[in-house]
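[recover] target loaded
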């Protein structure tokens, strides 16, 4: 935890010179695995409903909070220095809601149990506590709290604060730090000059201003929740959601204890929560649909399978997890039976010029010289560019049609090998299997559907994805439905580029240490996987590896929470988290993620372009403004591309001409709406 009100060296000096070291307790010596103190009542409400199955406990969280607020307001109206205790709160609760009278003792005991459940040691403050103890300082704890002193003693012991001289609890003494009178009581009780006490706490008014006014040397520590950006970590629809509280609690506690910004943060603060939410959502579907096997499709499925294996027990799910070797090429080519040239162009065209021989090698077939010449080429070593030149694309399609019998024969061999693989991993025999992948347009599931239902017509094949675009709607059927987590058949308001940004970013984050799978072939009766490139020493880009380490750390922290706290964060909050990251990355996030090598494969042998790291500047704006604007529009991640521009002129140009930024400008939107309104009136 960072001591922000005064320099840490000053605090250390004060620690050396003082006789007593005083600690505030909540949000200082101890922290909670909930975001706000009142979120404790959400846990209690869930437990009470589960135990009693009684509708009278619905809304308990708000009633308990209101009862406390009501009695505090009435008490402080008489005297701001007066304090209430837990009995006062529950007496008022029963006065406001008599239905709780019969279980009053049970509910009050549950509150103390739940407090103990969510309270953990603050390691940073504990290290200061140890230092003070080793220096022979006398340690005291002071807290403004309504909980009984005996319970606070148990919480301190639970968090290993076993050695201290005194514990001062406001509700036991009858006055508080907020008024300053509790510090008067402490000074009098200890019979010591106030300057001999150094105090540490999270409330600037109570722990710093009031303590300093009495002569104590006071220092302020950051309250964790203040470190959370409301723009990113909050969503209007999740104010009273336990899952949202758990998510934010893990984030605030992480932010309290981390030292410096790093790419690990992107994993812990963005990828981890989203993958955790997706996996819990997946588990709920697996249970409700009685899915026996989950197949995590290569390569994005590699990290998703790790997350599922960590969280399956938390969700009491028994579906077996498999890592399924598959790729666009491996699922399209084996199904070729007609329109060979057209289908080949749909998956095999390179963005870079390549030779005829290289194209034939993609599907591992040969063509004689006459067939190549008949298609309009000079020979197999001729370099062509079908991605950019329609003439080359038409000739390549003709060549594939000319050798269609050879192509279909090779495809059939691959299909037979792949069906054998699907049988060996149990997919063909499963009556309820789930496919798990990043998304986006449903093509992979549509192809697997043909393979599986060709062998097992009764099978149910469910697809689970981070997002599905509206264009994916026709790829699914009653026997092969698809489900999107963050976006379910959404058209993104017509902004396909923003959907593609989401897709690219998730694919980068979920990269696997493996080359792209190509096909299976049979060697000595065994199936052997083959890859697009040599795959003997696969590894991840270091930045991606660090992001995934951060994400796994978040998932493990979630899995280690008490069961009562393992509530899934609401999907709108996770969607908001990711989209805010995409639209508003920090300078560090844009730079770190933008520098990741990216094409379809981060392990390409050649040097890959960077994800969002522009190489253009002022001169390009002047000489090629249209090209520069177009490059921004189709960049992998527009907001990061913009942030990473070094040229002020280039940034100003993008802000001026790009629809992406014009649509975010409130003045532009107001003018646009006004013009539309005028046009509608003119039409009428």
């Amino acid at each position: 935890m960072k001591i922000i009100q005064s320099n840490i060296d000053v605090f250390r000096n004060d620690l050396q010179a003082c006789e007593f070291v005083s600690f505030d307790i909540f949000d200082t010596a101890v922290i909670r695995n909930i975001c706000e103190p009142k979120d404790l009542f959400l846990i209690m409400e869930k437990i009470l409903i589960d135990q009693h199955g009684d509708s009278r406990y619905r809304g308990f969280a708000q009633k308990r909070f209101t009862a406390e607020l009501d009695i505090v307001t009435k008490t402080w109206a008489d005297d701001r220095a007066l304090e209430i205790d837990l009995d006062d709160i529950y007496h008022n609760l029963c006065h406001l809601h008599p239905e709780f009278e019969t279980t009053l003792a049970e509910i009050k005991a549950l509150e103390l149990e739940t407090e103990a459940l969510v309270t953990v040691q603050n390691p940073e403050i504990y290290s200061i506590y140890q230092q003070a103890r080793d220096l022979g300082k006398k340690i005291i704890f002071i807290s403004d709290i309504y909980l009984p002193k005996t319970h606070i003693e148990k919480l301190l012991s639970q968090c290993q604060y076993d050695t201290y001289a005194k514990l001062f609890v406001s509700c036991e003494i009858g006055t508080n730090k907020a008024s300053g009178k509790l510090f008067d009581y402490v000074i009098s009780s200890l019979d010591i000059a106030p300057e001999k006490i150094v105090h540490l706490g999270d409330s600037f008014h109570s722990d710093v201003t009031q303590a300093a006014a009495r002569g104590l040397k006071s220092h302020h520590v950051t309250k964790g929740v203040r470190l959370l950006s409301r723009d990113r970590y909050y969503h209007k629809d999740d104010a009273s959601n336990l899952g949202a509280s758990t998510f934010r609690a893990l984030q605030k506690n992480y932010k309290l204890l981390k030292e410096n910004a790093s790419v690990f943060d992107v994993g812990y603060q963005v990828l981890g929560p989203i993958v955790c939410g997706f996996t819990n959502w997946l588990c709920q579907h697996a249970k409700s649909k009685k899915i026996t096997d989950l197949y995590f499709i290569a390569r994005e499925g590699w990290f998703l399978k790790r997350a599922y294996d960590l969280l399956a027990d938390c969700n009491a799910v028994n579906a077996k997890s498999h890592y399924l070797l598959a790729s666009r090429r491996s699922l399209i080519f084996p199904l070729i039976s007609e329109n060979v040239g057209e289908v080949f162009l749909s998956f095999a065209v390179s963005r870079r010029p390549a030779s005829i021989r290289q194209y034939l090698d993609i599907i591992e077939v040969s063509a004689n010289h006459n067939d190549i010449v008949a298609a309009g080429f000079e020979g197999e070593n001729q370099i062509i560019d079908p991605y950019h030149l329609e003439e080359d694309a038409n000739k390549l399609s003709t060549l594939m049609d000319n050798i269609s019998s050879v192509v279909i024969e090779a495809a059939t061999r691959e299909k037979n090998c792949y069906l054998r693989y699907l049988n060996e991993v149990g997919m063909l025999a499963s009556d309820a299997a789930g496919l798990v992948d990043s998304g986006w347009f449903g093509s992979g599931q549509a192809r697997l559907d043909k393979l599986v239902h060709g062998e097992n017509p009764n099978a149910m094949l469910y697809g689970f994805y981070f997002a599905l675009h509206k264009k994916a709607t026709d790829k699914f059927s009653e026997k092969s439905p698809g489900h999107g987590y963050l976006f379910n058949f959404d058209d993104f308001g017509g902004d396909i580029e923003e959907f593609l940004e989401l897709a690219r970013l998730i694919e980068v984050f979920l990269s696997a240490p493996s080359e792209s799978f190509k096909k299976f072939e049979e060697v000595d009766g065994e199936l052997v996987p083959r890859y697009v490139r040599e795959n003997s020493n696969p590894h991840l880009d270091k930045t991606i590896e660090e992001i995934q380490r951060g994400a796994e750390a978040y998932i493990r922290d979630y899995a280690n929470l008490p069961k009562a706290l393992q509530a899934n964060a609401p999907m709108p909050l996770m969607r908001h988290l990711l989209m805010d990251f995409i639209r508003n990355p920090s300078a560090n996030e844009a730079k770190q993620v933008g520098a990741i090598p990216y094409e379809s494969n981060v392990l390409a042998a050649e040097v890959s372009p960077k994800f969002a790291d522009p190489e253009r500047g002022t001169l390009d704006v002047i000489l090629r403004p249209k090209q520069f604007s177009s490059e921004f529009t189709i960049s992998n991640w527009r907001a990061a591309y913009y942030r990473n521009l070094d040229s002020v002129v280039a940034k100003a140009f993008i802000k001026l001409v790009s629809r992406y930024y014009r649509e975010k400008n409130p003045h532009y939107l107001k003018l646009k709406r006004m013009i539309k309104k005028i046009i509608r009136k003119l039409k009428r």
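[recover] notes: Residues 263-288 form the longest helix (26 residues).
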